[in-house]
Amino acid sequence: MAREAIQFSMDSTNAFHAAVDKVMASLWTEVEIIGLGEPLHGGEEFLLLRNRLFARLVEAHGFRAIAIESSFPRCRVVNEYVAGLGTESYEAVAESGFSHGFGALEANRELVEWMRVYNVRADRREQLRFYGFDSPTEMTHTDSPRVVLCFALDYLAAMDGRSGQLHRERIDPLLGQDADWENPAAMMDPAKSIGLSPAATALRIATEDFISELRVRRPELVAKSSQEAYLEAIHYAVVARQLLNYHAGVAGTSEHRLAELLGQRDAMMAENLTTLVSRERRRTPGGGKVLAFGHNSHLKRGTAEWQLGPQLLTWWPAGAQLREMLGARYVVIGSAVGVSEANDIGEPEAGSLEARLTTVPGPAKFIPTHQGKGLPGAEVASLPTRSSSVKNSSYFPLTRQSVVDFDWLVAVDSVSYNRGGPPLP
Predict the structure, then answer these.
(1) Greatest Cα pair distance in the chain
(2) Between the CA atoms of 45, 295, 405 and 256, what dihedral angle is there, to the nearest 10 degrees?
(3) Alpha-carbon dihedral of residues 255, 260, 261, 262, nearest 10 degrees?
(4) How confident is the model over 44-72, as a mean pLDDT?
(5) Cα torsion at 246, 251, 257, 263 (round to 10°)?
(6) Does the pLDDT of residue 377 top 90, yes or no?
(7) Which of 31, 200, 294, 405 has the fewest CB atoms nearer than 10 Å to its CB?
(8) CA dihedral sign of residues 25, 26, 31, 34
(9) Is the pTM value of this prediction over 0.85?
(10) Helices 13-25 and 44-61 meet at what angle, rounded to 10?
(11) Tens digits of residue pLDDT in 78-100
(12) In Å, what is the CA distance from 128 to each residue of 102, 118, 193, 254, 320?
């Protein structure tokens, strides 16, 4: 760590740019997604780090898109705002364009506004795009499939009114009321879910038939619209299918039900990201590159774990999926926090990975892990895990596995709470 750390300060633009450029120089030139993880939701400095990292990747390294851990379908309206279309104010998209309440965060506003200003002077093919890569699900509730299905249905109706109408007449009665799909009690009580009801099962079949027609008629539909419009429509239809499968899982009674749902969510995240990369590759000169920002637990290469009461939930996160789907074209930077009084994170225990990281000089630093190669196995195996946070349950400390799960680590010695974030208990 002492030998290879790249120190920087968030207050020094030149030092930060130099640090990012050194990290980028170490990577394979064919990298398509760089994942930047955050160890918790609620660390202001990690959002600012993300904003500045994306700006540098745009200005010096050919990146033209960012995807954050927010609902894939919702972020479409934010992307339209970034492109200068639709509404004239961020306030109009702050709630509808984000999930998890992320639109209220001031750092997200600053990112979106910077992208909008950049696009005013950029060539059309060089313009920046804003995406969400999360599925339309949360631990508290799961979205109705109506929005994603209707988007794809509207596309087919515009190409073939008769066929679109037939599918809509079959699907609409099966959708029922959105409140029934989005019942928050269903996550902990499968009996409250309608995911395996006769109507939901029939809707899954109807959605499969709809996707089948879109696939069979691809040459015709692309000719009538465009490849971009067609691929977007079919991806929405596939997201609807995944969402219906997720609802079926919510209604299931497997003893591993929650872990299976977490795995489904992350698999959807990975598919969203690979779809976005393919879209950017077609759109931008030299191939698209995407910065993905989300929780460490979603972007890591190894298994994810969550201790929920007496249950230890284990699943394959999006980063592990991307490792198999993209290989070396996926690189991930995990984040570590030293202390955060606002998030109830005290000094890390002696010997922990965070304690070792924060003893390296500098308020912040990038450190390569070499995926654990060449590190002393016994010393790594004996690394203790630091204490978590009682106040912020989204904080997950690093573990000994982190030196394998991430290609790089970025450590920030002190972190405050998000501007605009909801009050912590």
Answers:
(1) 68
(2) 160
(3) 120
(4) 97
(5) 0
(6) no
(7) 31
(8) negative
(9) yes
(10) 70
(11) 999 999 997 789 999 999 999 99
(12) 20, 8, 39, 43, 27
